[in-house]
Design brief:
Strands 1-2 form a two-stranded antiparallel sheet. Helices cover 77% and strands 3% of the residues. α2 packs antiparallel against α3 and α3 packs antiparallel against α4. By secondary structure, the chain is an all-alpha fold.
Length: 176
């Protein structure tokens, strides 16, 4: 359990660090990236590790947050961390239950992945944009465009990572 939490946090934080340097050109404005690869990594972590993966992401998130906003108070850190780890996890659970999807990676069908990616992207982006407005980081007038841009970036990141994972799994199965 502790190893899963630690590994999840390190993997997600590493993906965030790589995305910050490699995909910096896709940043629309602070906290909004038009191709957000860590969202895809997060989805894979949540599908593989469940609640423990969500906890690892939530615990690692402050390290990323403090690199973006240096003047963050504890209530803000806790809110953003909960959004980063637990809102997507709750969304995965809800979509799996409503759509009758098994969280077993072996039974996921191709149609399930875009559905999960879209749902996680929308709920996470709107929750995060709402918190940014609530804490005075963004203007309320820009909520809808900001949340929409975040959701699009998260979806593109999720779709890219999940598509790559599916290709690697298919390639590996063919080799064996």
């Amino acid at each position: 359990m502790g190893a899963v939490i630690l590994t999840s946090g390190v993997v997600w934080l590493s993906s965030w660090q790589v995305a910050q340097s490699v995909l910096e050109f896709t940043e629309w404005r602070t906290s909004i990236t038009l191709v957000y690869i860590p969202a895809g990594i997060r989805l894979v972590i949540l599908l593989v590790s469940g609640l423990w993966g969500a906890l690892g992401i939530a615990l690692a998130f402050p390290l990323a947050l403090l690199q973006v906003f240096s003047d963050v108070a504890w209530p803000e850190i806790l809110a953003y961390s909960a959004i980063a780890g637990f809102v997507p996890y709750a969304t995965v659970l809800a979509i799996c239950r409503v759509a009758g999807i098994s969280r077993d990676l072996g039974t996921l069908r191709s149609i399930h992945l875009p559905l999960l990616a879209a749902a996680v992207s929308v709920t996470g982006a709107f929750a995060y944009a709402g918190a940014l407005v609530a804490f005075g980081r963004f203007n309320a007038e820009s909520f809808l465009p900001d949340a929409t841009a975040m959701a699009a970036g998260d979806f593109l990141g999720c779709f890219g990572v999940v598509a790559l994972a599916r290709l690697l799994i298919a390639w590996r199965r063919k080799r064996h």
